[in-house]
Design a protein that fits this description.
Chains A, B: Homodimer. The structure is a homodimer of 243-residue chains. Chain A has 243 residues and is an alpha/beta fold. Chain A has two domains: 2-163, SPOUT methyltransferase, trefoil knot domain (Alpha/beta knot, 3-Layer(aba) Sandwich); 178-242, Helicase, Ruva Protein, domain 3, CATH 1.10.8.590. In chain A, 49% of the residues lie in helices and 13% in strands. The first copy, chain A, has helices at residues 15-27, 44-50, 54-59, 66-69, 93-104, 122-125, 145-163, 178-194, 204-217, 221-242, and strands at 5-10, 32-36, 61-63, 73-79, 90-91, 108-113, 130-132. Chain A has a seven-stranded parallel beta sheet. In chain A, helix 1 (15-27) runs parallel beside helix 2 (44-50). The N and C termini of chain A lie far apart (74 Å). At the A-B interface, helix 1, helix 7, helix 9 and helix 10 of A face helix 1, helix 7, helix 9 and helix 10 of B.
Amino acid sequence: MLKNIKIVLIGTTHPGNIGAAARAMKNMALSQLCLVAPRTYPSAEATARAAGADSILEQCQVYETLDEALQGCRLVVGASARLRTVHWPQLLPRACAEQVWRESAEGEVAILFGRESSGLRNSELDRCHYLVHIPANPEYSSLNIAQALQVIAYEIYIQSLSDNGPADRGELEAVASMETLEGFFQHLQQAMLDIGFSNPRQSEKLQRRLRRLFLRARPDPEEVNILRGILSAAQGRKSMRRQ
Amino acid sequence: MLKNIKIVLIGTTHPGNIGAAARAMKNMALSQLCLVAPRTYPSAEATARAAGADSILEQCQVYETLDEALQGCRLVVGASARLRTVHWPQLLPRACAEQVWRESAEGEVAILFGRESSGLRNSELDRCHYLVHIPANPEYSSLNIAQALQVIAYEIYIQSLSDNGPADRGELEAVASMETLEGFFQHLQQAMLDIGFSNPRQSEKLQRRLRRLFLRARPDPEEVNILRGILSAAQGRKSMRRQ
């Protein structure tokens, strides 16, 4: 489905932005890049900024007009600063990603990014089913196009992952069992006595506090072993002294 | 609260990335940029790529060491590719944004971005309570640092819009500052030597593991005092023996 999502850059002025866009796309597993009337392309600067994503550039399609680039698309979304004067259906990036992802199961979808200086023209907005608007600092709301693409592609990629199951498997790690922890807490209490840090009557509140600290840390069994080794070493000094 | 969020770029090689990072920050209403040992800074290229965000560059702090940049921070999050071999608490960007936003109500929070070529070093990861990992194409998972920053800053900005502050203040407890924790870690290392538990050459991996354990626990200043008291008591035995 990600293959059905076209990124269309219109009238891009700086080739570095084309390269950065290619990299952002590949990072987020998008592959279809279309350039409409780029000012300078191909370009060594685009290739340099693409880093390892030059395959995206090699396969990209260059068109003279937007309509050629949009042939066969079932949905067109334009990336735009918030337009207050025009009543367009506007989506936030997350809602945009849901819609784009859902529709990409059915056919090709295009997301348009306009010129660095002036964005999308009215004739280009006219092709859009929706506009997607990235919330931004009202005092400085214009994102670089590769940065805007990164945010939107990230939301689409997250959407693609959540659709196939949890993004991050193996999140749960082994933690020490409660009996292992109890053994440690007893050892800690004894060691604190042995080294002369505390006596049992005073230390109940302190012990409780230390328990909370270590429970919060969710130590795994090996970490408990390390901690007990340290305690034993501290106690060992004492038994050596006694001898 | 956004003012309490520090973006820390470590050892950045390309000044263009510093400029792009400044722009991404300003777009997402972040203002505190720290540079640790940048290769080339100030730079005309950074200023050019910052576009209208040169105010961020003018106010940025440049440090020689990471510890200086982290002074007074209550939470440190490192941006990193997914680490499969190391058991670090890892967050997705959205969960990271929630945590960062919540804690920024209480004090300063730092998000670290490593070198373009090699990311964060072990000694830098050692300072992190959490790592944040941006899900990406497994075949090409390394994002440009300004792009990675854009995604994370976007999630934080979204969080700031959806929430006008923690509903229940006082939920967050005081946690020890990074310099307090560093003092404790040094004490722990010394104590482990003094009690004969370890020698410095063998113990690097072990120290790292203990750091992670205690960072995870987010001890408060009083807890650090208790732990240091225990360490001193363990060490005291030794000095008593020496006499």
